[in-house]
């Protein structure tokens, strides 16, 4: 396997490599930098040390089971953000072929960047969606960290589901789950 | 260039732009009629070539945009069609001038122009011009299309010339530098001879030629030119034009790959937002010969191959678009170009079904800053974004932007907010938020959707509809909000306030607390009461009514039976027809019916036309404040029903609360209670049970029968304080009275017809219930004749009925106590009553062993008698149908003991046909009591005193009692028969005795019956023997106390007559007459052979005597001395062979007392 990989590397044409690079450059250059017309003041001082600004759990039928955002923010705004992100989630799920659905990776990665936030998604095999919104200025957050946050969230959610007193489909009111979420939203040490 | 054309798509690059404009005064509708006809010529195939020319028409185009025509030739206005009205030749010069003025606006770029003149009367002196056409009116212009086609062809000729001109322009001539408006000043003083500059000029020109080729229908050439341009421009870093060349390449490739077009059939553009009408509609119809010819095969296969080589693949198209956009992005002034490129790319991606990438392009488009946009432009932009998101299947995102657009319509900066447009746009977002304004859909299953945003949207709808002056709509939306989102209007969501700083409704300060929602609802309804009608919006959307079935929440609906006294019953016999059951089994544990059936299940009971019927609802108020529900009534079908609405006030968050709704059915038939009607906060709602799955009901269909009269019952006795002991049937009323045993009380019952129908029939029955006591005589007796004679009873009239309540319980005192004493039978000589009984009687309550149940049957115990009188009545239409009503009156009598016969015995009287009945009478009352029998004197008894009473009675001949008829005998069991026989005997005895008691102190009196006291032995003693013996001495019938006189020496004839009254033949018997003398000192002298002699035999033989026959024996006696003689008639049964001994009491023969007197002298000699 290893040897094969090695032999394959040179097979990449120079052309496709540059294309790839351009692609990366493009998304960075064009989509985010040049046309930011809204001036944002004091954002960095406000919560660049936060890990997540909003965490949501969405049922299979696309209604929220749990949504929590940083209190200083306008909560409804996050409702809209998370709600619209479902479009992307659905698109991403449907993009994976039916046959591959079982082996699909649960983590969906960045759903979409907005002016202020980055929205990440995660879908369990039972089509329950987790969405984490982080401040786009928070560049220190790595993909791995987001993944581990989702894993933690998933584990805690599984615990909630295992509670015999929990009615599937109800909003989550578990304190344990709440504390896990809170931990993700507080300042990273 | 500041205003983007959001409708652009890639294939627009191959079109030529023609502006159609009115000149002078042209009615708008006429203009657009002509405009529509012109735009129908969107594609013209050119003669002598296989090429097609596509035309894009605009009725409005900014000259500013025209300046970008060199950059992308499809932006250049190459044709002008003017439409004008000219009534007379006089006006013509002026019109012509105007036309030329207009031509000058786009003059630099125009290839050709036309003027269409309408309404001209008469002739124009001027010579015929090719660019002007005259029509008498807007209606008569048959060849407009033809003229437009000609016009297009002429444009094509110019275009083709230009193309060839530029394409073959290889000379060393200086190539002019094409540039966009904002570049012009940059090139001032640039070295025009540098290689760099030349290359730039070449590249730009190449690109321009490519554009022309594309427009002229030469896709292949265009691709080649674009490729060359890309190479050239890339080398000189002319990014803007490189972008344009790349986009050109993309456009050409898109045209090749997607002949169907990318604009899609969607885009329901509004006239206010879209500048180019009809363009999109035509897009689909276009035929692209560049890709495939009409017959599907390209004429030139070689060009096909070449095309395929130069053409970009679907993946590459997107790559190149990205690249082009990134180049455009370098120039602030090219924002519109970039934005349009994004839109075009998104459309292509939508066709390719690559939503994710499309969303990236759109995301980018959102960020493109076009400087200060007017409000209308913002709305347009958001709308188009919404549309594009919709195109790629991002419905939520689409809804989001549509909502933003809606908010923009009423932004505070706009002087005249467009609430109508706002409302319209908001309605379009409903699907994106998976919201349907039909509460029926909503109630199906549990709520699914994003509640927070749905609530928000509904609030905005409410507010917008109010501001646009339609309170009816806002009431409807607010009702919907209350109905569907009630659970979600929790405190948590209440914290959510307005959204997105710049798009929030400035004035929208609706608080989302339940109270405030309801308050605003009340405010709105004060202007416009909410109803149940379907609201139809101008665009045809229907808003179904929203019944507020959760204010209050109804948990169960139960139809109530009429009160017992008003329940109708079906006459027996008729009833059985109805008793058809669905199942062959009498009982099955499996309940087969489903919920739905339950609803329609018919209920057992019936309602009556004209009578108030009740339905009980269990409701509760989920609101944290008091809820006032007005006009709550029933909704029914099947029968004309007059609902009597009720108003109720439910306390905050009340528990289940029973509410009874009433109504009067006005016709007969099957009534179906299918819902209820409420009015809450000014919103009237009709809540149908079908739509409320949470409501429990035990059936809603009930039969209404024709009207029946109604009776009200009142009595002379006080109403019963305590109801009768548990009994199956409920009673309409009951009376209670306290009586002494044996007492009789009159009960006067008044029946009043309070209904509206005549009372035609009345039947009265009574039934004793719940009594273990043995009752003698009739408890309740009445005479109905008089009451019935007054029928029919008109409404309002009344009738009275007198009922005798007679209590005659067992007067036997404590049989159990006397059991032992009675065991040996009742001795004829009687029983000393003194000591043992007294002992038992005295220690009443005190010494009784505790817990001994048997001691409860103390004779001082107050006994209870209960009976139910049933008045069955009917009349009116209900009677015809075979219905009647029952009115039942419970009669409760507490019977206090009066007297007891503690002991009964008989003593034979002196006469054989009589005997003495000895009764030990015990007074168990607390008063002094007098007892009297028929012909006896009164016996005074003090409280708890017992005395013996002797009554002489003639023996009874029970055979004279009526015999039960044979039929009855056959079918009843012998034991019962026997009991009945005993009972009749006893009652006969009792009535003969006529024992009464009287308590003077309380003025109460009554009878006492010995029925229960008599036992078999006593009865036998009281019974007249079936063999009746008559002894006649000297022609005189003799009995014990009668002394027959005779003379000594005379023969005394003796006659013994036997009458058989028994059922069987008796005999033969032998009778022996033995005379004796009683010395009254216990000595009886039988040795009288000397004193008495028989003439003939002293023994008689009686043969068999058949029933009812008699036999007479005659003999004679001769007394020899005077004296008192007795004759003892001895009796011998000779019928021993028959096996059956007759009881000795049958042979109760009188002893004969004969006094022999001195005979006269002459006889003695």
Provide an overview of this structure.
- The complex is a heterodimer of chains A (about 190) and B (about 1150).
- Chain A is of the alpha+beta class.
- Chain A is about 45% helix and about 15% strand.
- Chain A has six helices and five strands, in the order αααββαβββαα.
- Chain A has a five-stranded antiparallel β-sheet.
- In chain A, strand 4 and strand 5 form a beta hairpin.
- In chain A, helix 5 packs antiparallel against helix 6.
- The longest helix of chain A is centred in the middle third of the chain and has 21 residues.
- With about 1150 residues, chain B is α+β, with helices and mostly antiparallel strands.
- Helix content of chain B is about 30%, strand content about 25%.
- Chain B has 30 helices and 46 strands.
- In chain B, the strands form ten sheets. Chain B has a six-stranded mixed β-sheet with strand order 2-3-1-4-5-6. In chain B, strands 11, 13, 15, 17, 18 and 20 form a six-stranded mixed β-sheet that branches.
- In chain B, a hairpin with a 6-residue loop joins strand 2 and strand 3.
- In chain B, helix 5 packs antiparallel against helix 6 and helix 17 packs antiparallel against helix 18.
- The radius of gyration of chain B is 61 Å and the shape is rod-shaped.
- The relative contact order of chain B is 0.05.
- Chain B: Belongs to the NIBP family.
- Chain B: It comes from Oncorhynchus tshawytscha.
Write the layout of secondary structure elements.
The complex is a heterodimer of chains A (189) and B (1165).
Chain A: H1 2-8, H2 14-33, H3 43-47, E1 54-58, E2 64-69, H4 75-95, E3 107-113, E4 117-123, E5 129-135, H5 143-162, H6 175-185
Antiparallel strand pairs in A: 1-2, 1-5, 3-4, 4-5
Chain B: E1 15-23, H1 28-39, E2 43-45, E3 52-58, H2 63-66, E4 77-85, H3 92-105, E5 112-118, E6 132-135, H4 144-167, H5 195-215, H6 219-235, H7 239-257, H8 279-283, H9 301-310, H10 314-328, H11 335-352, H12 355-367, H13 375-391, H14 395-409, H15 419-429, H16 439-443, H17 451-467, H18 471-484, H19 491-494, H20 514-527, E7 535-536, E8 542-543, E9 553-559, E10 568-570, H21 574-578, H22 595-600, E11 602-608, E12 613-620, E13 627-637, E14 641-644, E15 646-650, E16 657-665, E17 669-680, E18 683-688, E19 696-697, E20 701-705, E21 711-715, E22 733-740, E23 744-753, E24 761-768, E25 780-782, H23 785-789, E26 798-806, H24 815-822, H25 835-841, E27 863-874, H26 876-880, E28 883-896, E29 899-908, E30 914-923, E31 929-932, E32 939-941, E33 946-954, H27 966-971, H28 974-993, E34 995-999, E35 1004-1008, H29 1016-1022, E36 1027-1033, E37 1036-1038, E38 1043-1047, E39 1051-1060, E40 1069-1078, E41 1084-1085, E42 1092-1095, E43 1099-1102, E44 1110-1119, E45 1123-1133, E46 1152-1157, H30 1161-1164
Parallel strand pairs in B: 1-3, 1-4, 4-5, 5-6, 9-19, 11-20, 22-28, 38-46
Antiparallel strand pairs in B: 2-3, 7-8, 9-12, 10-28, 12-16, 13-15, 13-17, 14-16, 17-18, 17-20, 21-23, 23-26, 24-27, 25-26, 27-28, 29-30, 30-33, 31-32, 31-34, 34-35, 36-37, 36-39, 39-44, 40-41, 40-43, 40-45, 42-44, 45-46
Helix pairs in contact in B: 4-5, 5-6, 5-7, 6-7, 6-9, 7-10, 10-11, 11-12, 13-14, 14-15, 15-17, 17-18, 18-20
